[in-house]
Specification:
Elements lengths: L1 H5 L2 H14 L4 H35 L5 H4 L1 H4 L1 H12 L11 H9 L16 H6 L1 H10 L10 H8 L10 H14 L2 H16 L3 H15 L5 H22 L6 H19 L18 H19 L5 H16 L12 H15 L6 H6 L11 H4 L4 H5 L1 H17 L5 H21 L7 H21 L2 H4 L3 H7 L1 H4 L4 H15 L6
């Protein structure tokens, strides 16, 4: 009942009005908004507990979670905005009202010494994790002139450890990064990173994400950390991949295979700009062009490791996976200078598609399967990349390969960018069949996006490549386009029609 009430449009409208009142310069209206929000905390806590209970009951019965439980994150949108407004108003707590940051910490990361009013309810750990977007907004929007309560950073580090197989909730990791960047001194931040590193280096998924977000807080400040910490992460990845190659039957081999893709994705954490997380006007310390310098320093190192490693080894697979993550996070202005890495992106696409449709199976039998092939049946280089997380990156990787090829073509060269298009064509065709048959571990929207990206890829290849490279695939391409031409989505049918016309018009004179 509480969840349904929270979804009522009238409640959302009232909270919008409350946020507008909190944004006014009048301290009286701000005090009123803060007081009312404080009295709403028990309702949001009860709503989170109800969502957790509904999901637990659905899991026991083997049924999908109730619709209102799945929409809980959307219900927090307006209250999160109100929380941000209260904190951006400096959270000074006029007339005895405590800073809103202290309220959120006492609510979601309670400690024995907290004494911030009688309206803050206790909640289970699962419910608190669902409500972490409030704490994220509080730490992001509170100005550094408001001191962080003693011991708060330590509580954030302890709560964000996750476990061997899963990371802590993303909003909690964002909160940890914002707090560490804005309030931690250099010795405090260095000590926290050093404490988190052993768990990250030994194959804990939760440990590597906690280390990465602490490192992000330090790298964003610039200085020596921006050069050292990314190399530390690359060394961890290469060390674990080497362990896997040295002892494939190691008892922790399955855990290492699961850890390596997550560790590679943490490179994106270090590089991607987070303008909505580290706000300079609130006191966040962000040095410009840090991500560009990290990408430029790491890519040659990873490329050399890839080509010096043994063929089909885990080191080779981990290196190309890390390269793709760095390229996906690289600033667009940097891509024209990175066309030499296009063939590695093409190789990555081939390896991931091979993990979904191994050699020896037909396209139709692979499309009929509901799950990709087990990673243990693949070579180590492909096994490192196998899994739903890599499949979800395929659409972005195709877009990246198109960008690198366009940059190469605009420079007037027929080099790595355009050559990679020809190399990736067979994999793109196989991927189109799998995506059109909804045979990948993706959502319905993810399948549609991937089909559209494959069609764009095929159309650009028809425009950019010479006829002698396209003609052997012409009949196969037009056959594979029959499914998308009858797709349920109009946008897919339109893109398939345009692509089919382009391949039909291929001429030996181009």
């Amino acid at each position: 009942a509480i969840l349904r009430l929270a979804a009522d449009p009238l409640v959302a409208t009232s909270l919008d009005a409350l946020a507008a009142a909190a944004a006014t310069p009048s301290s009286a209206t701000r005090r009123l908004a803060a007081g009312l929000m404080l009295r709403l905390l028990p309702s949001w806590t009860a709503a989170a507990e109800a969502a957790c209970l509904a999901e637990a009951e659905a899991a026991v019965e083997g049924s999908p979670p109730p619709r209102f439980s799945a929409q809980f994150s959307a219900l927090l949108l307006v209250p999160k905005q109100l929380c941000a407004v209260l904190c951006d108003a400096h959270g000074t707590g006029d007339a005895g009202t405590p800073p809103w940051l202290c309220v959120c910490l006492a609510w979601l990361l309670p400690s024995a010494g907290d004494s911030v009013g009688c309206f803050i309810p206790s909640a289970s750990e699962a419910a608190r994790f669902r409500l972490m977007p409030f704490l994220e907004q509080a730490l992001v929007h509170t100005w550094t002139r408001v001191p962080l309560p003693a011991g708060a950073l330590g509580r954030l580090v302890g709560a964000s450890c996750g476990d061997e197989h899963t990371s802590a909730p993303q909003p909690l990791l964002h909160a940890l990064c914002a707090a560490a960047n804005k309030w931690a001194t250099e010795p405090e931040l260095g000590a926290a990173i050093a404490v988190a590193q052993p768990a990250a280096a030994t194959g804990s998924v939760g440990g590597v994400y906690r280390w990465a977000w602490l490192a992000k807080a330090s790298v964003s400040r610039g200085g020596g950390a921006s050069a050292q910490l990314p190399i530390v992460l690359v060394d961890m990845i290469q060390a674990r991949a080497t362990d896997l190659d040295a002892a494939p039957a190691h008892p922790d081999a399955a855990q290492l295979l699961a850890w390596l893709p997550h560790a590679c994705s943490c490179l994106r954490v270090l590089v991607e700009p987070l303008d909505q997380l580290l706000l300079r006007h609130t006191g966040a310390r962000v040095v410009p062009l840090v991500g560009q310098r990290v990408v430029s320093a790491l890519l040659p190192r990873l490329k050399a490791t890839h080509f010096s490693a043994r063929a089909a080894s885990a080191v080779r697979g981990a290196s190309v996976h890390a390269i793709v993550h760095l390229l996906l996070a690289a600033p667009p202005a940097l891509l024209p200078r990175l066309a030499e890495y296009a063939r590695l992106v093409s190789l990555w696409i081939h390896l991931v598609v091979s993990s979904c449709c191994p050699q020896g199976t037909t396209l139709h039998s692979a499309a009929a399967a509901s799950n990709p092939a087990p990673a243990v049946a693949l070579a180590p280089s492909a096994a490192v990349l196998g899994g739903p997380d890599s499949v979800r990156l395929l659409a972005a990787a195709l877009r990246l390969l198109l960008s690198l090829a366009k940059a190469d073509g605009s420079a007037g060269d027929n080099g790595d960018g355009l050559a990679s298009l020809a190399e990736a064509l067979p994999a793109a065709l196989r991927l189109l069949t799998l995506a059109a048959a909804d045979a990948l571990p993706l959502s319905a929207e993810g399948h549609v996006r991937l089909v559209e990206r494959c069609l764009q890829f095929l159309e650009m290849a028809a425009d950019a490549l010479p006829y002698h490279q396209l003609f052997p695939l012409k009949r196969q391409v037009r056959t594979q386009l029959q499914g998308p031409l009858d797709h349920r989505k109009r946008a897919v049918r339109s893109a398939a029609s345009q692509c089919s016309n382009r391949w039909h018009a291929l001429s030996a004179t181009q």
